[in-house]
Design brief:
Chain lengths: ~500, ~450
């Protein structure tokens, strides 16, 4: 679908002008080539082709393209590697897509201050590879880290398995060069911390490309830990495994990762990659500790004891890097293995307080039963960040609708449990109608005021995050009315 | 100034007669030349909302107030009608040790909050200056931090969600009560460090951490500041996991309990005792490489508090008559260079004491001088040398004649126009702490 309704002469004008800005090789306008950009990694939900794709190579080019769009009144949106899972990097209705993959250089690595500055299209994993020889690493490690870009990570405030201890993208980004929706280039934050002023960088991270386009990012690097210890604990039930997670935290231990795989995922993983998980297990809990050697040796004793207290039937400890890689292999291949048990799946993302994990997992099981769908679970248990994979078959009439309805029920249950409808995938296009379940109209109006300050014309990635029935940039209209003084639900 | 009866009546109707102070009690709420007409003590968020609604309708300027310990920060308000004292909003609302999260009201004192979290053997790892009196709302509004940020980060890393009363009394929330959350804008970040200019923080949900089973600290002294700094960079790039790494010049070291006369590095390490022992050995070996003398600190908790409070409380008070305290930022690798440059730039006019949290490149210090002019010159010259390193300097407290000569926030930074538009969008009538923040916000 090509939905913007751009007049042909406007489109031609934009193509010519973009070619002048970035060179002809940096503009894609042929329909068969544009098809590559009709969706991100949310593939079945929302497909819309951009009117054209521009691949700039500098901040100045991005600013020039943005100004061009603004003058023409044409919507535009940024895109990194297109690995996002909520449709945030798919146009709402055509427009110009600004793809940052050609901006993929390291600009600076400052070893003594442990900082790196890279262009937005730089791939997440490249960064850790580039600084390894200095004994450093970049902590956020989303599952797509071999492909996803740092700029996309900033847009989605990406997480990953290891953020239980280290935090998510927002905790590691210190500065960004940003092209605002009016085409102005601004430096938000920077290498030097605590400059006085509002934390514009803080609100920019996780704004899903709706407040501007970041072109350069400065991140904090961490020293590699002295030692890493990876344990795999097998449980009869997911309930016992969840209780073990809470037990470990209650002991004052914060592993660097605690990842859980349920029975369905274990089946799929074993059929695919043979990670050596026992097929009769109800849940597998992967626990990783890192830090000073003596610290994690002491913690490992506590972790083992806690797992056994909660009915763990088997405990393996990786003794070598190869063994560690094997224990992780099943986790890393989990989503990719689900093809062994289903034709299609809808990957969800939500968060509950850690202590509510057993309850929400029980409810997900019930929901799956009611809709006649298998729901497999692989998730960041330490954070309470669940990833139900709702299995369905696109060729079975009504199956997709049932999967979406089941996903919607899961979202509602997570909110009831005091949680959130997205831990790391973002709202994008997919979940914009869920946002009012978490936030009152006044809460959303405050966010829309921020949007209106950054993007008064509403041209920067429109149709994302906020519910479709709310006209963009008109939050103030509601906010000033007496009705908005109502206290939002706690 | 007598308070208009109708306003007093309006305030009494909201918070009761015992919730409004006027008269001599207002002296301690004075900011620069301005004294408010009244100070109000709401009991809950709905009273805060109604007070703000009244202020909004009447166009009254409101200064949110916690313990008042850091009110010297910023410009004096351009208008000042009401001080909004939040100390009666002082409850812990939720605490779930297994989730490592807690929710508390803004007026709670950090010390009381920490006592509450003791029940779960956890704590909120924030150690701002004047922590014994500081309130949660004040700490978040000022984004205050201390040496512990080396390990745990700042409020922006710890706060998960927030409830705020806006200028018109509307109450909204941002974030959630879970540790990971990407739902709409992370608007919570805007309020942290906004000095009450965008909204009044009512409550916050934050991550808490387990209290480490043990902690030990050392003074590592070297003849030259540069060697101590190089040692700090070495430690921070190593596998050691220190809680605090503070670089102090001689006067700051002496004020904070260093056994040496000259520059020193203060390092603390927390964890299980066997891990501390192992790291202590590595630390001593590294220190040896830099020719440093290592002394274990015997009075650790008291020393920690002293370092957090420096230079607010324990900088040397004797000597010259006028004092100012300040805070600046440089690259972590530039801490020693910045401190030496400040010393050289100011020594002609003032006595100096300085400390740096090396991991984040935050330098703080004090000047004492014979005259306000000398103080102002010291601050201006120091700001200039930090700017040459790409850094900045903010004046935290100084006498009025100094403030008249030196802009406490310094030159405007990139994005100040966006900030001014945000202020206008959130507080169109300019009633929240008007005129106190950067760019006249």
């Amino acid at each position: 679908m090509n939905g913007s309704g751009l007049a042909p002469e406007t489109r031609t004008h934009l193509i010519r002008s973009c070619e002048r800005i970035v060179g002809p090789e940096g503009v894609i306008s042929a329909p068969d080539e544009l098809r590559v950009y009709e969706c991100d990694a949310l593939t079945f939900y929302h497909r819309v082709m951009p009117d054209l794709v521009v691949l700039p190579t500098s901040t100045q080019q991005v600013a020039d393209v943005v100004r061009l769009c603004r003058e023409a009144g044409v919507p535009f949106l940024p895109r990194g590697a297109g690995t996002g899972l909520s449709g945030g990097a798919t146009p709402d209705a055509g427009g110009v897509m600004i793809v940052l993959t050609r901006m993929n250089r390291i600009l600076d690595i400052d070893v003594p201050s442990r900082l790196a500055t890279v262009e937005a299209g730089f791939i997440n994993l490249w960064l850790t590879n580039a600084v390894k020889r200095h004994g450093l690493f970049y902590a956020p490690d989303p599952a797509s880290q071999q492909a996803c870009s740092i700029g996309g990570n900033v847009a989605e405030n990406a997480g990953g398995p290891h953020c239980l201890k280290y935090g998510v993208t927002t905790n590691h980004v210190l500065g960004a060069t940003v092209v605002l929706p009016d085409g102005e280039v601004r430096q938000l934050g920077g290498k030097i911390q605590d400059r006085p002023g509002y934390d514009l960088l803080g609100v920019f991270v996780g704004s899903e490309g709706t407040l501007g386009i970041c072109t350069e990012v400065t991140v904090r690097l961490l020293p590699q830990p002295e030692a890493v210890k990876t344990l795999l604990a097998v449980f009869r039930t997911i309930e016992e495994a969840s209780n073990a997670v809470s037990g470990i935290i209650a002991r004052g231990i914060i592993p660097v990762a605690m990842e859980m795989l349920d029975r369905e995922i274990i089946k799929a993983v074993e059929a695919n990659v043979k990670a050596g998980y026992p097929l009769d297990a109800g849940a597998v809990l992967l626990i990783e500790l890192d830090g000073p050697r003596a610290e994690i040796e002491a913690e490992a004793v506590g972790v083992e004891a806690t797992c056994r207290e909660h009915g763990c039937i088997e405990l393996r400890v990786a003794r070598t890097d190869e063994e560690r890689a094997l224990l992780w292999k099943g986790r890393k291949e989990a989503a990719g293995s689900v093809g062994r048990i289903t034709h299609h799946y809808y990957l969800q993302d939500a968060v509950v307080p850690r202590s509510k994990l057993p309850k929400i997992l029980r409810e997900i099981g019930e929901i799956g039963g009611r809709y006649g769908l298998i729901i497999a679970n692989v998730f960041h248990a330490g954070d309470g960040n669940i990833h139900p994979l709702i299995c369905f078959d696109l060729t079975t009439p009504g199956d997709l609708d049932r999967a979406i309805a089941a996903g919607s029920e899961i979202m509602k249950r997570c909110i009831e449990a005091g949680g959130s409808v997205s831990g790391e995938h973002g709202i994008g296009h997919e979940k914009r109608d869920y946002l009012p379940l978490m936030y009152s109209p006044a809460d959303l109006a405050a966010m829309l005021r921020v949007r209106a300050v950054f993007d008064p014309a509403g041209l920067c990635n429109p149709g994302k995050i906020f519910p479709a029935d709310r006209p963009e940039g008109h939050g103030d209209r509601n906010l000033q009315s007496p009705a908005m003084t109502a206290v939002s639900d706690r | 100034m007598p308070v208009a009866t109708s306003l007093t009546d309006g305030l009494h109707a909201i918070v009761g007669a015992d919730g409004v102070f006027t008269g001599p009690a207002l002296a301690e709420y004075r900011l620069g030349p301005a004294t408010p007409h009244a100070v109000v003590f709401p009991r809950d968020e709905s009273e805060v909302s109604r007070l703000l609604r009244l202020a909004w309708e009447e166009g009254l300027a409101v200064v949110p107030w916690g313990s008042g310990g850091h009110q010297s920060l910023g410009y004096p308000p351009s208008r000042y009608d009401l001080a909004l004292n939040l100390r009666r909003l002082n409850r812990v609302l939720e605490y779930e040790p297994a989730d490592m999260t807690a929710t508390a009201q803004a007026g709670i004192r950090l010390a009381d909050l920490q006592r509450h979290l003791e029940s779960g053997r956890q704590f909120l790892p924030l150690d701002p200056p004047l922590a014994s009196q500081a309130t949660l709302g004040g700490i978040l509004g000022g984004n205050l931090s201390g040496p512990l940020r080396c390990r745990y980060g700042t409020a922006r890393d710890l706060v998960l969600g927030i409830r705020v009363a806006h200028a018109d009394g509307t109450i909204t929330k941002g974030g959630a009560k879970v540790v990971k959350n990407v739902t709409g804008y992370d608007i919570t970040k805007l309020y942290l460090g906004s000095h009450g200019t965008l909204g009044v923080i009512l409550e916050a949900t934050f991550r808490v951490y387990p209290r480490p089973p043990a902690e030990q600290a050392w003074w590592l002294s070297t003849p030259e500041l540069e060697a101590a700094h190089a040692l700090a960079i070495r430690i921070l790039g190593s596998h050691l996991a220190p809680s605090r790494v503070e670089l102090l010049d001689g006067p700051a070291g002496r004020a904070c309990g260093s056994p040496a006369q000259g520059p020193a590095l203060f390092v603390s390490i927390a964890g299980v005792p066997e891990a501390i022992r192992a790291q202590a050995n590595d630390l001593a070996r590294m220190a040896g490489e830099f020719g440093s003398v290592t002394t274990e600190d015997p009075a650790a908790p008291r020393t920690w508090a002293g370092l957090s409070d420096f230079p607010w409380l324990n900088a040397e008070r004797n000597g010259k008559g006028h004092g100012a305290i300040w805070r600046g930022g440089v690259l972590p690798s530039d801490c020693a260079r910045g401190m030496r440059a400040i010393h050289e730039a100011s020594s002609e006019w003032a006595d100096t004491a300085m400390a740096a949290s090396v991991a984040h490149g935050i330098v703080r210090g004090t000047f004492r001088a014979e005259t306000p002019e000398a103080l102002a010159r010291s601050l201006a010259a120091s700001r200039e040398v930090l700017a040459a390193l790409g850094g900045f300097l903010v004046v935290l407290d100084a006498p009025a004649p100094v403030r008249a000569q030196v802009d406490v926030w310094g030159p405007p930074l990139d994005g100040v126009g966006v900030m001014q538009r945000l202020k206008a969008a959130f507080d169109a009538k300019g009633i929240l702490n008007p005129g106190r923040f950067v760019g006249g916000i």
